[in-house]
Structure formats: C-alpha cells, structure tokens
Amino acid sequence: MLPTTLRCPAVGRSMFAGVAFSLASSMLPMAAQTPSDSGNAARISQVSSARQTPTVLAIRRAAPAVVNIHGQKTVRATAAGMAGATGPDSFRQVNGMGTGVVIDPRGYVITNFHVVEDVDDILVTLDNGQTTSAKLIASRIRNDLALIKVDVDRPLPTIPRGTSSDLMVGESVIAIGNAFGYVHTSTQGIVSALHRDVPVNEAQEYHDLIQISAGINPGNSGGPLLNIDGDMIGVNVAVRVGAQQIAFAIPMDQVVEIVTEMIDEHNEKRLVTGLRTNGGPRDGDGVTVANVSASSPAARDGLMPGDRVVRVGSQPVDDRLDFALAMLNATPGDSLELAIEREGRQMDLAMRTEQVSGAVAGGVEELAWSLIGIQARPVADSTIRRLNTRMRTKYRGGLYIANVRPGSPADQQGISTGDVLLGIHGWQTSNMADLAGILEHPDMQRGPKAKFYIVRREQTLFGHLQIANQADNAARR
C-alpha cells in the first residue's frame, strides 16, 4: 500500500501544503528571474557542434513556450499548522508558484489546477521576462488540469506537441519548470515506468501517469515533460516525498483530450453551434464533423456529418484541440468562416453562432422533464469510449438518465435510471444542446411517435416515444 506522502510540487499542494508550512513565514523566497538572453544567438553559432547535443537543441526548441506562474492565496493558518496562528479564524496570505505551457499564440496556457486553485491574482512571467496577469478559463479538478488566458498584445511562441502513445521505458526525457523560483530550470532523466496509478490522499488519485527520473521540485508543477526531440509529451505533476528520482507526469494524449473536453464544455455554456466533432489527440489527426444537431446553426448553414474542418477564420485546424481553441474567441452572433473538405473538394462556409438561451441555458431540463419525463446529463467521452470498446460500437456520445417521471412517456416505454440515451427520431443526443434542438424542432412539435435508442447494461435497445405536444403541455400547466 503506497503511503499518502505524495506532494504535488506547485502552488496548491506544495507551496500551500505539507512541508512548505514548516517555515514560520509561510513564504517561499522567489529566486531572481532572468529573461532569456537573445544575445546568446551569435555566440551559440560559434559553439562546436559536439556541444550542441540533442538535449541542448530540445530545450532550446521548447523553452520559449514555458511560462512561470506565481501569485498569492489565502489559507487558514491553523489548518496549515503555521507558527503564530491565534485561532480557528486566523488567515494568512502565502506566496506560491508553478509553471505553464503556451499552447496557443493568443496566450492560452495549460497548467495544473492546483497551481492556480484559489489564487487571488494569477501572474505569469513570459520567456522575455515580462510579467502580466492571467485569468482562469476552464478547469478539471479531478484531473488536476487548468487552462488560463494570459493578457498579451503579441503572439506568443507555442510548445511543439508530441504524443505519449509511443513512449518507451528507458528513453530520455527533459523537464522544464519554475523550480523553487529558479525560472526555466531544466533537468534530465529517463522514463522509469508507464501507466502508474498514484494516490495523493484519500480524496484524489492520479491515473495512468508517466514515472520519470528527471528532477522535479516545488514550482515544477504544470511544466512540460519533453522527449529528446523537444516535443511535449506530458505535464509534470507530482513527486514522491522522501524518495530520489521518482516523479510523475500526466501523459500528453490524456492532457490534450481532457483540455479539449474542458474547452468544449466552456464553449457550450456560451455558444450554440450544433456541431460535435471527432479527431485524435495529435497534430495532423484532423477534425471531422461527427454530428449536426437538429435546428442548429451548423445545420442551417450547411455543415454535414463527414465534413473535415481544416481552418476556422485564419487559424489552421489540425486536431480537436485546435478547433476548440479556435472557438474560444467566438462570441454569440459571430459569423465564423470555416474551410472544410467534403468528398475530396475544399469549400468555404460561414456559420453564425447563437447565444445560449431558452432551452439550452437551463430550460431544456424542464422541457425534457415535462415532454419526455427524464432528467439527463451528458456522458463523459471516456465512458462512451469504454462502451464502444466493450460493445464494438461507434457511438459518439449520449445522455445519462438520472431520473424518470412516473407515468411519463419515458416511463411508459420502460426507460430507466442509469440508461444512456443515444438518439431520438434519427438525431443523436450527444449533449443537452442536441436534446434542446430535437425538442424544439417543428417535427417534434407535431407530436409524432419518435424512435429512440438507449444503452442498458452494454446492450442497445430501442422503442417509440409519444412525445407530449408543447402547446398542450403548457395548457395543462
């Protein structure tokens, strides 16, 4: 049984927890921050090629996209075991730091959630020494990942993204981070093991981590793990306290998948597009339209399942993360210029986004309860993938049935809590926006019997719902 002595080396779980609080001041001194010296370029050109090893070239390639995150948070003094605490309501401001990686030139940065958790004012120091503010855009606490937006007026260098799918035990890796405040500290080691599950405490456990021997210290959290080519293959997250050369990183493919889901969820709260896409985690995997919701802007403006999106505005799209990032700057009412490939031909389309309102903003829950008799929530992509693996199917999403109203159409057709609703009347129900589009579609308002599909105990079932007429239902209320 692994003791719960793991500490995450950054703001939330090492600067603000554990041994960091043995200092009476609870303040970690910041090392002098020196911006990268562009004047080195001329001298580098004169260095012998023997000294410019693959490690040197890898760090040089990736380092400009590594940023240093610092700020303050308020902690309860007694809970932290601080010297000088006077009672249960004693609070103190403490400094902390971590690392981030620029993934989009507009200033979007990936880091660990615990680096920015409860930080009052997130400050970011860029590769040129400039310090600016940032705001939290999206986060996933259980996966300890966050996306922040840095306030910049120039394009930032971005990290070269690699894949964690082909990592080999024993291959060389490099970590870059804000170790103890010494910015852009680089350490080297090897991949010690793959697919490690690591418990932090009784409430949290990391899954499928990369174990490495590179030195990871407080402040490294959120920084990149590189392969010898300088491609980012993971996010450094934790060390084993008391051990030597045992550290862990979240695999890059997992990071890309989770961050993409985070951004999609953030966008769905702001925008209605009606698009659902497929694509892999690596550059070049592409983005294909998997589903177009009924009555959606995507359907209205001519997008079709199977279309491959290659550009949004002026931004090339090579994978789903690119597409999600491209949508971040869109506002309701914007007309997005999309370049797509369809049946071997490239064509341009304009899709006008809409503001989340009405059923999608929350009324869809009431509508689904009154017209069908269900309470539903989106199923995680990871759950759908597990179903597809076990059932050898290709479902793209679904809605988990959390409750069924007695006597409702759903109840009459035998739909039960725990079922996963896959589609109604030929349209997929991958998310709540899909369900809203279906329930508001003119065909549905005429009250036909609509065929539905569900998954129950890894079996696909179907039936026919007599959906209540909205006007009649409103009159009854």
UniProtKB/TrEMBL annotation:
Give UniProt keywords alphabetically.
Answer: Hydrolase, Protease, Signal
Q: Which organism is it from?
A: Novipirellula galeiformis
Q: Which GO terms describe its molecular function?
A: serine-type endopeptidase activity
Quote the protein name from its UniProt record.
Answer: Periplasmic serine endoprotease DegP
Gene from which the chain derives: degP_3
| InterPro entries given in the database record | Chloro_Bact_Ser_Proteases, PDZ, PDZ_6, PDZ_sf, Peptidase_S1_PA, Peptidase_S1_PA_chymotrypsin, Peptidase_S1C
Major enzyme class: hydrolase
Q: What is its EC number?
A: 3.4.21.107
Q: Which Gene3D superfamilies match?
A: 2.30.42.10, Trypsin-like serine proteases
Q: Which residues form the PDZ domain?
A: 262-344, 398-426
Out of the domains of life, which is the source?
A: Bacteria
Q: Name one GO biological process term.
A: proteolysis
* Family listed: Belongs to the peptidase S1C family.
Its signal peptide is: 1-31
